[in-house]
Write a structure and sequence with these properties.
alpha/beta; 10 strands; globular; six-stranded mixed beta sheet; homodimer; four-stranded parallel beta sheet
Chain lengths: 323, 323
């Protein structure tokens, strides 16, 4: 039942990340607990290096490069948090990174990635296939491709977020985790179940992008159209192959949240917890808010998975969705 | 040279606050350090109970009530963070609070204060004098008036913020503190100097409300017109009497910041540190941003004194001041 990902893998990743990644704090709020009627423990991965949990997996993968591979460097494709995570992890390890980004990626994301020292190359997302471009780049240059989730070392690194949370907070009843490709849930679920075999594992997806929920019901990976949601980190069309093998055996339930619920979650975290969480990162908390009776009286761990949202985007979201 | 406020007072306050107030975290950011060319340590009082450092002083004062006084309760006037702090501290101590607020105070501030169990009474700020109203209320009801700053137990409680910061971070060169009535600086300065006699103490005021700077130059308390600034917690007309006696002997310098610099500081804290700081709470950090050469290469402690800003106000400020 290990599907190739074991608790030992996650403990090994934690040892590698010690002193490199932040051991992020746990956010609690009397006001929020009162509102939802549960004891809520937010794992503040918005305060992780490069602003999201992604750094944990990227560093764990890149730190395993052989000396030869380190010489040749890494490559990745992403317009989001994975780009910044790979760029920063490569710099910390002392290797080089090439990141493929769509031409129309926000200038701020490109600047942040370049700020970590990566070589950013753009492609036309309507005419070119990013996986093929990345594979060609890897083949030509010998760079090691760093995937965003479908890799055991990525999953193991990402699982250290739950390892820390369960070490810091005892007796959690439920763990709520945003699901995109499924790497965060794969790693976190394995870690959480190892420490607490009875913990309930609940994934959260945007209602418009319920590929994991559909896939779990069908018992096989289902592909959907690119979802339209403000949760830009969760716009995948299909669960990962390796992640799904793990998650289909461990996930108890998947909750769906719409954009309005995500913005309400961002607002409450801003006003009550004074913390900045991006749309994708607020989905797990949104699930708790949108169905509090489902979690009433429970001790609930919530992955606040990222905080990379600018003030302009934040203000737009508030004005669009909040009265 | 103690002016009635000693380090022992602050240590006694810290003992009282232990387990009641939050020992707030220290915010650091590689990105911010790189931008300003200094090592910045933000004392996150925006994460304090009731959202600001004010709780430290209010609780320290109210916890000293005699059994008789506790029976009769407390009163205070404030439209801002002091109101919420007194309301919460009264509830924690187990006494009652009446808070005088102007009729036109924001509904959210009133709701928050009532949410902590206080009895809020309104007055017409154009026709009635709040100090006189509060004095009459105290005389009629026997309630103990809790002033916002000009009281040694308030100052001692507020000084525990710097006590914690200097215990957590060694070898600070400079401490930047927002100045309104001067209570936070009075307490923090005494604590900081006791732990590090060579530390530089720099106050920060809105450029439009430079009563402390003028008073320090003149060597006596100068009254100004009510300042127009977005830093609504710093709109005092004159330094406190007791606070000024302390601050005139210990403050090395006062920096002034304008509204645009305050909003830039709020934006940077949001985007890089993922933390929500209200205008008044961001002034000390704004001083660092607006004159980085003044602090270059130094280890600078910065009081992030409060985080009570709603998403609507935050969005308005960003759209008004940021391109």
């Amino acid at each position: 039942m290990t599907n190739g990902l074991t608790f030992d893998d996650i403990r090994a990743a934690a040892a590698r990340l010690d002193g490199v990644a932040h051991h992020t704090p746990v956010v609690t709020s009397h006001a929020i607990d009162g509102l939802v009627g549960a004891s809520v423990f937010g794992k503040a991965e918005n305060l992780q290096r490069a602003g999201a949990f992604k750094f944990r997996g990227a560093y764990n993968r890149i730190s395993h490069l052989s000396p030869d591979e380190r010489e040749r460097g890494v490559c990745a494709w992403s317009s989001g948090n994975h780009a910044q995570a790979v760029a920063l992890a490569a710099r910390v390890v002392g290797t080089s990174a090439v990141i493929l980004m769509p031409e129309d990626a926000p200038a701020s994301k490109r600047a942040a990635t370049e700020g970590y020292g990566a070589d950013v190359r753009t492609y036309d997302r309507y005419r070119e296939n990013r996986e093929e471009l990345a594979a060609a780049l890897a083949a030509e240059t010998g760079r090691v491709a760093v995937p965003p989730y479908d890799d055991h070392r990525i999953m193991a690194g990402q699982g250290t977020a739950a390892l820390e949370l369960l070490q810091d907070v005892s007796d959690l009843d439920t763990l709520l985790v945003p699901m995109s490709g499924g790497g965060l849930m794969a790693g976190c679920g394995v870690a959480a179940r190892a420490l607490n075999p009875r913990i309930e594992l609940v994934g959260v997806e945007p209602a418009a992008g319920n590929d994991t929920k559909q896939s779990l019901v069908a018992g096989e990976r289902i592909r959907i159209a690119v979802p339209r949601t403000i949760a830009d980190g969760l716009q995948v069309e299909i669960p990962g192959e390796l992640t799904f093998e793990i998650n289909r055996r461990q996930v108890d339930d998947v909750c769906l949240v719409d954009d309005e619920q995500i913005v309400a979650a961002m607002q409450l975290l801003f006003e009550r917890a004074k913390t900045v969480v991006e749309p994708s990162g607020a989905t797990a908390f949104a699930a708790l808010l949108s169905d509090p009776s489902r979690f009433a009286g429970r001790r609930v761990g919530v992955l606040l998975s990222g905080g990379n949202v600018g003030t302009a985007q934040f203000s737009d979201l508030m004005q669009t969705y909040v009265n």
